[in-house]
Amino acid sequence: MSQLLRVTCFTVSRDGFGAGEGQSLERPFGHADPVPLWSWAGATASWVNRTEPGGTRGLDDYMTREHTRNIGAEIMGRNKFGPQRGPWKDHEWRGWWGDTPPFRTPVFVLTHHERPSFTLADTTFHFLDATPEEALARARRAADGRDVRLGGGVATIREFLEADLVDTMHVAVAPVDLGRGERLWDSPAELLDRFHLETVPSPSGVTHLLFWRR
């Protein structure tokens, strides 16, 4: 089977926003409170950022296990990596995740302002000024036969959707409204010309949307 480009465990609000306005160092999701968006994932036993034993099992946990299954590399936009804009003023900033990022694979950060690669624990970040097609080709080589995860944010996912490169996508719809910010869609029906869609409600209150190519 060919390597897939997968979106996994990406959460949006009920009104279609994946992040709020006004991202800053202190507020990675802008005006949006990330807790109502991401509590479904953080509560599970298998969530990649879990630091203590415990957590829920069931549907949500299954979805979080899929987040890392057979992933050999990740592509993300610069806004997911950090809040800086324009040329890098220095190279001290190394992402939101501290000394042990949760990715544990090569990560390719799309930016118009490249900087040297660096490694933290078992994650290496590379910075590319590249088209979606070029970035995906580079990530597939690094993934060594496994799938590539498209990690976001919203603008990056939309860019790869517009380039028709996404193979499967899991989006969790949280039962909150943000009102403004970075919108993934007006309606998931916008994607039904290219994707099948299965909708699976969860007892946690989120609704899991599973897309795969027609």
From TrEMBL:
Gene3D superfamilies: Dihydrofolate Reductase, subunit A. It comes from the Bacteria. Residues 15-188 form the Bacterial bifunctional deaminase-reductase C-terminal domain. InterPro entries: DHFR-like_dom_sf (IPR024072), RibDG_C (IPR002734), Riboflavin_Biosynth_HTPR (IPR050765). This is Dihydrofolate reductase.
